[in-house]
């Protein structure tokens, strides 16, 4: 019998990576593939919900990052999962502007001039692009992203104005959302060039089924019963063929509720956050030092959303978002350094909120974004308390008649035991080779000895050295590891 028909494969995790891996394996003819998912739902960090009526909101991923060469953009086009779309960028209200735009308010309630904001945002964008495109000057290469941006911005005449400086700090706070970091002083300026941005900008017009519709397309490729939800894996025993135990398969997966599964291969797609917390106990024998070092050195940051549903819209129709510009924001280098040791930042956690954006298909809903340690702290608070704080911020910054919020929904990705963070970033000092060690399967293939190769394989967003953080990165890693096994058997 064809070995492909008898090989047993277990996939851990039913996010984009795990589902893509399973779908690819079934398409190639594998018949014994089981997906074990800890949560009571599939999708992982894709979480399409309907808390405010029949239209969707996304608690996790909501953009397709780039269009050219993005397999999920292609999947969306093929299956009609996209709406008439546009690329997201910060848009300010210029005189005569008729497209929706962002309103930038200072702490004292002053609305900033759109032209002034736009100049600073455009410069910020040019400076970050330079880092992403590996075009940094030598003197900037060894700096953190925050220090590089501070140095480069200081050379611009825009840095001479108080408002220019404050808008620049706002830009840094927003960039923390992309980097999933507490601060840009944690992120390497040169290493972010390993991240590859696909052409076409952020595509933010998913169709009415949202990201879940993409997951559903992949699920249709799986036979019924392949995914077992509410099945958290406790540990993975591998190299059983060498251990002297009488085992017909080299891998055994043991779940928290007692079930166990024998396999020839296991594809592990749990997040970097879960690996950080559990890898030392999860694998028997332990993972090699190079893998553990990668898990230790790479970082996963927390990005959370705060949905506020109001009884009616109180912002102008052309307003795409209300952005908060603080006098002493948390992203300021001096503030960050002085408060790093203490806990004072917990008192002002809300200063990390970038602003509140309008939400597609929900005329009365705003969505706030918050990152890093402040997001983690917010997750400890009750939704209603967070809602009250946000209402007070909106009232004091805008001076508009903000009604009482009727529903609040916040994400808690940092404290979710099966995620432990939102997406990966590469801290200062981590080399591309070290990131690569996270990807390496165990034992490698071709094997230098007679051990069975590819017993434990690693997929998931963090394991893509160029598209980490993204849904398409996660999806491609699932296919990559499935393909590794297909190559082994064909
Ligand atoms: C707030 C937020 C916004 C985002 N925005 C975007 C965006 O706009 N665009 C974009 O491209 N990306 C975005 N992302 C990132 C994107 O969601 C992820 O990169 C991607 O979904 C990760 O998929 P994955 O399969 O690698 O991991 P996951 O989706 O985390 O899947 C891993 C699965 O493993 C399961 N698991 C964990 N431990 C165990 C265990 N012990 N046993 C069994 N199962 C286990 C988990 O429950 C989970 O379902 C965002 C993420 C967040 C949190």
From TrEMBL:
Its cofactor is FAD. Residues 16-486 form the Amine oxidase domain. Keywords: FAD, Flavoprotein. GO terms for molecular function: polyamine oxidase activity. It holds the Pfam family Amino_oxidase. The keyword Glycoprotein does not apply. InterPro entries: Amino_oxidase (IPR002937), FAD/NAD-bd_sf (IPR036188), Flavin_monoamine_oxidase (IPR050281). This is Amine oxidase domain-containing protein. It comes from Alosa alosa (allis shad).
